[in-house]
Each structure stands twice: as structure tokens, then as C-alpha cells.
Amino acid sequence: MSNHIAFDPGAIQGLVLGLKVLVDTQRDVTPKLDPMIFERPIDETTRSYILATIVELTELMDELDWKMWTPPKTLDKDRIADEFADILAFLGIIQWILFHRVGLTSEDLARAYKAKTKENARRAHEYGSQIPLEV
After folding, report:
1. Whole-model pTM?
2. In whole angstroms, how far apart are CA 120 and each of 7, 90, 117, 123?
């Protein structure tokens, strides 16, 4: 189980670095697209970017063949990647906002993700029929 956040101590550092890339990129790009990002009330800004993420998740879902009542469609890898990239960008913006708002860092998020993964593995072992993960 290499690179598994619950097992590989180096995986959490990799996640921290990935999260930092997202937030650092958005810290550079977003003010050029949204110069008023920190001029509006923070609740309004946070809500707007969370809603934008939801819209992008919906657009990703629309690219997938999920409608059982329609004829199968050909999946477009490039369109799927583009929608996923939009989601990552908005998650980077939200992370940047939350850092400004409550001091939430990439390290905090990586630790929370590791803890949640361990909890989900415990639940899977306790309640599910999946192969138990040692945590």
C-alpha cells in the first residue's frame, strides 16, 4: 500500500506539497481574475467559491456516463480532465480563503485528511464488507 496516507509517512508530506501548489498558484492567479476577492464580505466570497466548486462538480458529472436512462456516451478524457482541473482550482481558492479566514494551512488539511481516512477505514472494517485496512 505504498503512497497510502494511512500507511506511508511520506504520503502526508506529498499531500501537503500538492495542497501548497494549489494554494500558491491560486494566490497568484485569482487576484488577477477577481481583484475584489478580499474586498467583499468574507462570507459572500467563501459562499461564491464554494458554489462555483459545486457547479464544476456538476459539470464533471455531466461529462461522465451516469444517466442510466440515456444511451451510453463516449467519455472525453480531455473534457473530464478540464472539469477536474477547474475543481482543483476552486479548491485551491477556497483553501486560500480559509487560510486568511481561520489560519487553516496545508499541513492542517493533510492531517485532517489522514485522520478522516483512518476513520473511514475503521468504519469500513466495522460496518462494511471491505477488506479491513490496518490503521
Report:
1. 0.84
2. 14, 25, 5, 5
If we measure between CA atoms, which residue out of 29, 6, 7, 9 comes closest to residue 88?
Answer: 29
The C-alpha cell at 127 is: 460496518
Of 42, 13, 37, 34, the C-alpha closest to 110 is 13
Specify burial of residue 43 (Cβ count, 10 A radius: 0-12, 13-18, 19+). Answer: exposed
Question: What is the residue extent of each domain of the chain?
Answer: 30-104
Length of the chain measured in residues? 135
CB 99, CB 46: distance < 8 Å: no
DSSP string, 65-87: ---TTS------HHHHHHHHHHH
Instruction: Quick: pLDDT tens for 39-94.
Output: 999 899 999 999 999 999 999 999 998 888 988 889 999 999 999 999 999 999 99
